Amino acid sequence: MSSTYQLKRSALFLSLVLLSSQYVLAGDNLTDLNIQTLDATENSKQNHSVEQSPSEQQLPTIVVSADQDQTLSAGQISKTSQVGMLGDKQDLDIPFSITSYTSKYIADQQATSVADALRSEPSVRSVFSKGGIGEYFNIRGLYTQSHELAWNGLFGLLPHNRVPTEFLERVDVFKGTSALLNGMSIGGAVGGVINVVPKRATSEDITRLTTTYKSDSTFGAHIDVGRRFGQEDQFGVRVNALKSLGDKALDGQEENRYLGSAAFDYKGEKFRASLDLYDINEKLDGGQPLMVSFATSVVPKAPDSKLNHQPGSYSHTKTRGAIAHVEYDFAPEWTAFASAGTKRQNGVGVIANNALGNAAQPNGDYMAVSRMNANNTNVDAGELGVRGKFNTGAIKHNVVISANSLDQDTHMGLVMGTPWASNIYRPTRPALIASPPTYTPKTLDTTLTSFAFADTLSILDDKYQLTLGVRHQNVKSQSYSILTGLPSSPYYDESAVTPMVGFVVKPWDNTLSLYANYIEGLSQGGTIIDPSNPLVAEKTFKPYKSKQYEIGTKWDMGKFKNTLSIYQITKNDLAQDANRNYSESEQRNRGIEWTTAGEIVKDIRLLGGVSYLEAEWKKTAGGLMDGNDVKGIPHWQSNLGLEWDVQPVEGLTLTANTTYTGSLYANDTNTQKIPDWFVLDLGGRYATNIAKHNVVFRGGVDNVFDKKHWAGGWNGYVGVGGDPRSYKLSMQIDF
User: Fold this and answer.
1) CATH architecture, domain 3-734
2) Any idea where the TonB-dependent receptor plug domain is (predicted)?
3) If we measure between CA atoms, which residue out of 695, 723, 698 comes closest to residue 709?
């Protein structure tokens, strides 16, 4: 890279920072009590020193909120999570396994997407490479796509490709089946739900600027401003603005990312309301990482993740959303609520999440594919319901009745390029990348509606809790050919009823909780296509019901919490044989999970966990694949991180994060085995006070040993794993 180019890049970054500072000082924006309070705790040790300098004595008093007691691991994990229609609940009162990562954790990890924010979650794996256009997840051995993430419990309102984190207060990971709690998602994911909670203005003003750097030379600036107004601070506004651009770790790839969001809320005595608006633009130019299938049982070694396998490809997406929510207390202990949201997204670029390749040989040779698409997706979603409490004798009831709907239509055009020969270690640049399509017919029209009822019964000051519920779900869907725009399958109109039972026992107040659940999930039935005519559906199945049985325990010692769960999930699905033909079979996942968070000894914290999973095929055609591992699902996964507050240096914290993924199969016939892999990340942060401003410096090295590995699989393809060794820095200033 030339010195002139570097000078231009540096000037651009400096200009961006200066513009951001002017924007902040103009007072145009927002707040966050949790972030401010929790970041302040890293500096609070300065206020407890025996002797202070005159300048230190002049610093404003830091008030530590009681909300700090509702977090673990230095404010990185929340003890409160959203449980779908049941609303926000304390962790020990939830008969499921949930982990909630706060904005403090997101900032400390320098996470820019939800996948980054889940790096401590042992039950979740991101399927694709970081340099790809999207983020798909594997939760308890079952897949979910980025557009299946929930926004305060509502599906379909987030970007299809990648969800940024800069405007999020919390990311909740619900592990397991959840049809009653959230309804059916568009893709019918049943392994778990990732729910995001947007930032809101809180009682403390915030004016925060964060500047960032990531390898290769990506620079960014993020502004976060919050204020409350009115005699009783009943009005709030929170605004986030982000600009990030530059060269990424993948050779030749460039990022240009923009986020703007505004959150308005009103908190009255009986009436509460909020309105969230966001505008997200993401451009990835100059190439994509590799995703490939294998021709034989010999799986070649993973290539360098820096290699660019499709230099001329690109992906441009733009997403806008608006979500409103109101609540009204129409009687003591009774609240009516309603939510409504809309999303509009359009994009153009590569259709595959990565540069796509077929039939890689042991020496690395494969046939590369160039496919381009243009698409737009429109989603409207809403929920209406009532929550209330009443007693029948000694039994307390917490009742929820809700109805929700989701309508999505998708338009997509596709252009196929001419395949060319390439090699995973020595990529060949294509002579011609496929051109974007000019024709974008409707490809999918889906309407989901449901009605649900749940009652949590409790006795003896909530020591014993029983939750019963049922949901009636209707699915209407019509698929259309991407080539002709004509219907490609029969009109789908099916209904199903899914129940749920959950039990919680707290034998020692709020220290220990024992829980169990039975819950069903729901996904649209699969379609078997006539191999001789891809436009003709041979058979479409009724909605698949998945069933989960789970028992577990949660132990909360105040500063340290452990969760242990054992579960089984069964789900009908289509298994793929050696001839790439599909047949309806049953997937059975049995697993055990341990997650932990908090201070194990003074100044040392542990965060993460370990999971073991057996995902097997049952009831396959002729029993030929019964007992085989489901492709793309490892047995062992581990994410464990340590943080050390270095006492000799006040405000300094050193971190180490480890990620281990066991071996897995790339195909359902279990002839193509992907080796296990281990990655170490190191980092640190330093919180101080400069010129009466709280400042936090953060830095890290990801993939310290530059481990080359294959990532998880998707539909018979396997992606190159993660980023190469990369560096990241940030500086956060509170004004």
Assistant:
1) Beta Barrel (2.40)
2) 92-188
3) 723
